[in-house]
Each structure stands twice: as C-alpha cells, then as structure tokens.
Here is the input.
Amino acid sequence: MTDAGTTKDALDRLAEQAVAHFEIPSRATSTLINISENATYRLDDPASGTKWALRIHREGYHSPTAIASELAWLHALSASGTAKVPTPLAGKNGKLIQTLSAAGLERPRNVVLFAWEAGTEPASDDIAGYEKLGETAAKMHAHVRAWTPPAWFERHTWNFKTSLGVAPHWGRWRDGMGMTPEIEAVFGETVALIGQRLGRIGTGPDVFNLVHGDMRLANLLLDNGTVKVIDFDDCGFSWFLYDCATTVSFFEDAPEVPDLIQAWVRGYRRFGNLSPEEAAEIETFVMLRRILLVAWIGSHSETDLARSMGVAYTQGTVPLCERYLSHFGA
Here is the structure.
C-alpha cells in the first residue's frame, strides 16, 4: 500500500526539508501534485517563477540501484536525442538520489529532483497526438535495442508472472475492488487466455525489452508539437506492445479507443516495424493492462485515483473480458 501508516503532513515536511539539499532558493514553496506509487511535489520559486518536480519515492518499491537505473536510461534517451524526457538534478552533495528523513515517516525516503517540464496533457480523442505517441514509442524501442545498459542496471520485470500471475508487483487481481465470484470467474478465464497468448509471443529481445511501462496520457506532455515523456517510475522489462496498451489506461472501454490505437500504430510504423499479426495482438495487451489496473486499484485503495475508479472499474472490465474471450477464445 502506498505510504501506509504515514500522513500527508509527514510527506509535506519532507518536501519542505528537501529544498535545503538542492541548489534552489530556500524560499521555494512545495505543493503536492499527486500520490500514487510515489509522492510528487511541485516546487516554486516565487521570485524567479522557476519550477521543479520533486519525487519522494515509496518505501520499498525501488532500490537505490533501480532508481539510479531509471535515471541512467533518462540520460541515455536525452543524450541520444531519442525522446524529450525529464532532467534529474543533483543535490548539493553531487548525488542525484538524496536519502532524507522527516518526522512522521518510519524510515528515510529516496528523493529525486527534476527540472520542470512545460506542456499540456494530450486530449483522450487527439488522433494526431496518438500518432506522435506511436512515433515516440518506436524511437524509444529502437534506442533500447541498440543501447547497452550499465552492468549494474536493475529494473522490475513485467511479465505474466509478475503482472497477473503468482508474483504480482501490484497485488492480486482477485483482490480488486468489488470482486464477486461471478466476476472472478470471468476474469480467471480471461487471465488464462492472456497467459496462453503471451506464451506464444514469447519474451525474445525483439519483442520483450526495456519499456516505459506507463505511457498513459497523464505521463505525456505536448509542447508546441513536441511529445515529452515523463514519470519513468514503472519502466522495466516487458513487451514493447505494452507501451501501446498503457496509452488508453483507465478508459479502455471508450468508443474512440480503436481509432486511437490505429493512430498509434500508424505513428509507430513510421519509425519501427510492426506486422499485422503483432498489431492484432494489441488487444491482448490492452486486456492485460486493464486487469493489472484492477489489481493496482485494489492494492492502492488509499489513493485518490483508486478511489475515483473503484468498484465501477472492476465491473466495467467484465464486458471487455467477454469481448476478448469471444474474439480470441476457442
């Protein structure tokens, strides 16, 4: 559970104290943006108008090495010109990761400061925007295929076992809000079919590699035609097509989704190869993501996002399962 046993006041104190550890004015103020896996704050200097993004990591989710691995990929993406991504800023001690304590928190937290990125979140019906998302994903995937990470690189692996299987990073889908025996039965049949189809796809490096893992609209910014990709906290090793599925997170059942996915595919094919067979399998990854989010909501019930989706999201998944079973089932 995110920040279980802590209070917003404790996180606020840590954000305020963090200012002194970076080369930013002591007058900078902090404002909580959201709490999901981590707590993210906007820091503002009222005199200059400069802004920063401060991320307080959830306890126990990522090791310092895993966080450093994320930042190494950000640097590589930026240095190669592959994608516009956030720039981490070192503290006064020269380190990108600060480990800080505050009253009310049981243990120290890892903290990272980023330069603020301007831009607006794409609209959920922005066809042209989705083509740009596809282009961006293709460029990032091409980068990964050619990039050699540091020997110490460490990130989560998001395969079937760690998503919907016996060792899920985000909790069991069976613990989703509003789960009933009837819903569980439909979910179970769907999860089994997803597992079968993913087994056929396999996990070779051409299909399964380092991905952003959460390219939903909230983690994308459009700035004068440029797509910026933010929040790499869920980056790890998974199927490349999972990045497509995450773009329609939380509205997978909306009528515009097929058109948006087709726009993403068109954009992707401008810079990457995607066979008709692979494109036809995107529905499997959308279904994987949807049920994974049911699990996330169930294990993060204290967050505003989980509360806003709640039981209705679980119930709304049933028709998607039935459609998927009808399409791909025996």
Q: What stands out?
A: The first strand starts at residue 29 and ends at 35. The two ends are 38 Å apart (CA to CA). Confidence is low (pLDDT under 50) at residues 1-6.
